[in-house]
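Usage

Read records sequentially. Each one opens with the input sequence:
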Amino acid sequence: MRIAAIALSMSTVALCTMLPAVVSAQATDPALVPVDSLDAGLIATMKAGKRAGMHGRTATIGPVVDRAFDLPLMTRLAVGSAWNGFAPADQTALVAAFRRLTVAQYASNFDGFSGQTIRIDPRVEARGGDKLVRTTLAGPGDEPVAIAYRLRQAGGGWRIIDVFYKNEISQLATRRSDFTRVLGTGGAKALIANIGAQAAKVGG
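and closes with the structure output:
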């Protein structure tokens, strides 16, 4: 599992009956629930490992991503103001491509388990109307990595809209920078093709 790749990667999945690899306090704030579920899914994906192959890991983490993240909102925020000028069919295709890339990156990066743990800080921070949940990923011999999640309420629950690597590198901001460059060269169709190509490359 490549911890450093989490900057661009980040559902209830059962863990093994041994000591849980995801360590968290009892979830009292509802914003903790999707993060806890995502972390459990990531551990399950790592445990599936290379034996499951890319296809098997994708099947494990895909439904987790769908439940934990607000992918349509993330896509719109990453595209920015140009979004409103896109045809509905292009908007739908962009969300689908964004989802494929997100799932592929998690399935590719979390490809092996060697005792990693993910600890969730039970202290949830308010960020305007959003909430911030902090976690720490650690593995034997690895430097612990801080990963924070920004969540927004939608449809009666909380869902992740951004991931911060080392608590400061925003996945959404990185995506927006990349998307703006591609949009400047060919609009929505070019961006759909670019995201799809990235997903195919990651998926091998």
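Summary fields computed downstream for this record:
- Strands lie at 22-23, 117-120, 125-127, 130-138, 145-154, 157-165, 169-170.
- The radius of gyration is 17 Å.
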